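Morning!

This is the sequence you dropped in the shared folder:
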Amino acid sequence: MKHLLSTRDLSAADAIRILDTAEEMSAVSSREVKKLPALRGRTVVNLFFEDSTRTRISFEAAAKRLSADVINFAAKGSSVSKGESLKDTAQTLEAIGADAVVIRHYASGAPHRLATTDWISAAVVNAGDGTHEHPTQALLDAFTLRRHWSRLAGRASSGADLAGARVVIVGDILHSRVARSNVWLLTTLGAHVTLVAPPTLLPIGVEHWPCDVSFDLDEALESKPDAIMMLRVQAERMNASYFPSTGEYSRRWGLGDERFARLDELGLKDTIIMHPGPMVRGLEISSAAADSARSQVLKQVANGVSVRMAVLYLLMSGAPVSPSPSAPQLKESSS
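The structure's back. Tokens below.
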């Protein structure tokens, strides 16, 4: 695997290989020296054409923990704001010797364009493109869910898939690249996914996706999901009114205090709550739900570093993404 552009490109064996490698990488955070020499002398460029906090910082931390040199490139304040094309930007990065480019772009398909031309020879990682995909977010979500699912089953996470797990993804599916990537990846790993949203926030053709679709959150919760993933309403991508009011949206599709309090009554004592962030408290999720013991939000952030370390390591070290009995045994850096 030369690039990571979409979760649709990953087989179950590929995905498990990445997740198993991430398990090994997660041990780094508990070491006295939180660094590995795996990518020493290599250069990773974070090329962000959209604002980001969690994803950019997570990729930066991941690259630095692997001892790579990191260049953060933001479109604002660069030649891009003066009209420079993606091609010219890419060729500039090629000239300075980038070994991997982590790109977030407002246009769907931009990472694929970068990866399939002769503009650049570096590995390309899609960090979110338009409303298309966000594969590393889906991988960290799967990593988080797999750890939970494995604990419930009383088994080790390594080598495990998500066969039998039930996941409900709720909210603005129409504009969510996270939802798209999760549907493909979680299904590939054996999970059953149900999307819940108002009809206006579902994309055309969703009936052909490998998942169920519902307009009723309470009905979906009765299916006893193992995880509830709430999504932010992406108002910045909307040029019309997609629902009557924020109050109506919160009442029908939000995980508010009242609905959250009913989870135990529904027999969902082991159900976890997930959110890719940023959260809009009081709209799609209440503070009680976001700050509860069920919430995996901060674990998702922490797991994101491990998963992105795994992706960069596998793409840049030449290690094959293929079935393996165990993750690579990595040595600590002495520096």
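Headline: Confidence is low (pLDDT under 50) at residues 320-332.

More detail when I'm at my desk.
O.
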